């Protein structure tokens, strides 16, 4: 795995949400993601009646997940194929206090729906984070040079 891929997955692990939507709908919604680096997949826990779940119920859809976290210095647009999953073992693995807040019957709630985003590409802007940003801006004012805002790259999965 490349250094860029390691950086991407490491920073993505340290963030917990982004905006997810299918490319055939302009509407993106906030969703917590759960990264599976080895499989190249992001998982989401949602309810069966949501727009995303209903859209994915008609078949696999091209989708986008946008993550913006200044503290972690990660800004990324992730593309992939969104599908439904009934993988109960994966739900057991992902289940946490945040997810339980949304479902009255816990993991057994019949309304739970797993979404699986198989990644195809990610465009990434990786910075040093918010403190580094402030330092780079101040440094540019003193030196007259443009600030170093980090790396910009694309990953293919």
From TrEMBL:
<dbReference type="InterPro" id="IPR012349">
    <property type="entry name" value="Split_barrel_FMN-bd"/>
</dbReference>
<dbReference type="InterPro" id="IPR052917">
    <property type="entry name" value="Stress-Dev_Protein"/>
</dbReference>
<feature type="domain" description="General stress protein FMN-binding split barrel">
    <location>
        <begin position="3"/>
        <end position="148"/>
    </location>
</feature>
<dbReference type="Pfam" id="PF16242">
    <property type="entry name" value="Pyrid_ox_like"/>
</dbReference>
<protein>
    <submittedName>
        <fullName>General stress protein</fullName>
    </submittedName>
</protein>
<dbReference type="InterPro" id="IPR038725">
    <property type="entry name" value="YdaG_split_barrel_FMN-bd"/>
</dbReference>
